[in-house]
Every structure is written in C-alpha cells, then in structure tokens.
C-alpha cells in the first residue's frame, strides 16, 4: 500500500528554520518525481516545490524561492523540505505528494502543520 | 507562470443537482489538467486526470472535459458526500499551479 508520512512541523518564530520530512512506503520511491504543496488557514492549495526522481531538476514557487530547499534521499525513501527565514505567511499545512507521468498527484501525505508566530 | 482561474468560487446546490465548475488556464496546457476534491481535515483526492480521465474508484457522476485553456468538471447528480472544495491543477509546466478552489455548499 502506498503511504506518504510527513513529519517535522511545529511552532517556529519568524526568521526561524524548520525541516520537514516525508517518508515513502509501498512503492519504488526513486522512480517518481515528488512535490510539496501547502494550504494556509482558510486558503486554497498552493504548489511549493518539486524534485525529479533522480535529483536532476528542482523547482520552487516564487513565494519560497531563496528561502526553501527541497532534497531527497532515494536510499532512505525520503523527501525533505528545509525552510529558512520563515514568515507568518508560511503558516500552513504542508503536504508531500507523488507525481505520476499521467495522473498528476495520485498520492498525498496526511500533512504536517507549520505555524510561524512570535 | 501559468495562472489557473476557477469559477465560481462558491456554489450552493441541492442533492440531485447537476453542478458544473469551470477552470481557465492563462495559456494552453493541452490536456494536462487534474481535478481534486478536498474536504476539511482530509487529504486532497484525485478525481480526474488528463482533463477527462476518471481516476480509479471515482464515481461515474464525475466528468471532466476540455482542452487547451478551457476545462470543466461536471457532477451529474450531486450526492451528500460531494459537498467539498474542488481544485483544478495544471501539470503542463513545472509550476503545477492550482486554481483558487470552488466550494460546493448545501443549498
């Protein structure tokens, strides 16, 4: 059974850092591009970042470029999001998602809440 | 970046109603469009991919159509479990942009 399990969320002060993790189970992790998506309170879904299956291609939304860094460890079946210089507007539930060639984001993690507040 | 515009933002409907949600892309995305259903406290669920292909297990009352820049999601007969927020998403370019969402409420 395919499972994505996020961790690492929590309360952090503005300007602080946090590292999110996403553990993958039940599929060949190294064969899939992976993405992070977030949803701020009362807002819609926002695409954040992506990384290709073999680490060749990385992309970021303009809202996080220069502050967030995505990475993956295929040997550990894990995806990461390093978030620096956090702002109040980064407060959101962060989801990791598996991207397939045809079916877009077919599996999502349960989400981890990041709260940026003093 | 490709912008995705959904309409309406909110839709009030009754059980049994036919419901249509529209999504417009700022430039052609061919058929690289997905629709998701999202309920509070739950994980987004893929309904339709490649604009018109129904994800496995999704009821046939959901139908996606369109290509290029104009797309629609139609629910032929709204059921109680369908009250949720629906998002379109383009996956033609790296940015994988979502529409702003359409909340389907009980009338």
Explain this structure.
- The complex is a heterodimer of chains A (118) and B (107).
- Chain A is mainly beta and 118 residues long.
- Chain A has strands at 3-7, 10-12, 18-25, 33-39, 45-51, 58-60, 68-73, 78-83, 92-100, 104-108, 112-116.
- In chain A, strand 4 and strand 5 form a beta hairpin.
- Chain A starts with a strand and ends with a strand.
- Chain B is mostly beta strands.
- Chain B is globular, with a radius of gyration of 13 Å.
- The N and C termini of chain B lie far apart (36 Å).
- The model of chain B has no long low-confidence stretch (mean pLDDT 96).
- The A-B interface holds A 35, 37, 44-47, 50, 57, 59, 61-62, 95, 99, 102-106, 108-111 and B 1, 34, 36, 38, 43-44, 46, 49-50, 53, 55, 85, 87, 89, 91, 94-101.
Low-confidence stretches of chain A: none
State the helicity of chain B in percent bands: under 10%
The number of helices of chain A is: 0
In total, how many beta strands of chain A? Answer: 11
Q: What distance separates the N and C termini of chain B?
A: 36 Å
Structure class of chain B: mainly beta
The strand line-up of the biggest sheet of chain B is 2-10-9-4-5-6
Our measurement of the CA-to-CA distance between the termini of chain A, rounded to an integer number of angstroms, reads 40 Å
Largest sheet of chain B: 6 strands, mixed
Rounded mean pLDDT score of chain B: 96
By secondary-structure content and strand pairing, the structural class of chain A works out as mainly beta
How would you spell out the order of helices and strands of chain A?
Answer: EEEEEEEEEEE
| Oligomeric category | heterodimer
Instruction: Give Rg of chain B in angstroms.
Output: 13 Å
Biggest sheet of chain A: strands, sense, closure? 7 strands, mixed
**Protein chain pair with the most extensive contact, residues per chain:** A-B, 22 and 23 residues
Mean pLDDT across every amino acid position of chain A = 97
In terms of DSSP E residues, the strand content of chain B is over 45%
Strand content of chain A: over 45%
Poorly predicted ranges of chain B (pLDDT <50, ≥5 residues)? none
Element-level helix/strand string of chain B: EEEEEEEEEE
């Amino acid at each position: 059974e395919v499972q994505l399990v996020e961790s690492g969320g929590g309360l952090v002060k503005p300007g602080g850092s946090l590292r999110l993790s996403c553990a993958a189970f039940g599929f060949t992790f190294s064969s899939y591009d992976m993405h992070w998506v977030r949803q701020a309170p009362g807002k819609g879904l926002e695409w954040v970042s992506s990384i290709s299956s073999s680490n060749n291609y990385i992309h970021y939304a303009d809202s996080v470029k220069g502050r967030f860094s995505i990475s993956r460890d295929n040997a550990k079946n894990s995806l990461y999001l390093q978030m620096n210089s956090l702002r109040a507007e980064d407060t959101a539930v962060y989801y990791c998602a598996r991207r397939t060639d045809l079916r877009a984001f077919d599996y999502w993690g349960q989400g981890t809440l990041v709260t940026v507040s003093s | 970046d490709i912008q995705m515009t959904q309409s309406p933002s909110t839709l009030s409907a009754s059980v049994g109603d036919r419901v249509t949600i529209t999504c417009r892309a700022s430039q052609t995305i061919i058929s690289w469009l997905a629709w998701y259903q999202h309920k509070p406290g739950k994980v987004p669920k893929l309904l339709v991919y490649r604009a018109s292909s129904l994800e496995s297990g999704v009821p046939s009352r959901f139908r996606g159509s369109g290509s290029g820049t104009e797309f629609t999601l139609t629910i032929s007969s709204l059921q109680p479990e369908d009250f949720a927020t629906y998002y379109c998403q383009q996956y033609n370019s790296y940015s994988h942009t979502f529409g702003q969402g359409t909340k389907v409420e009980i009338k």
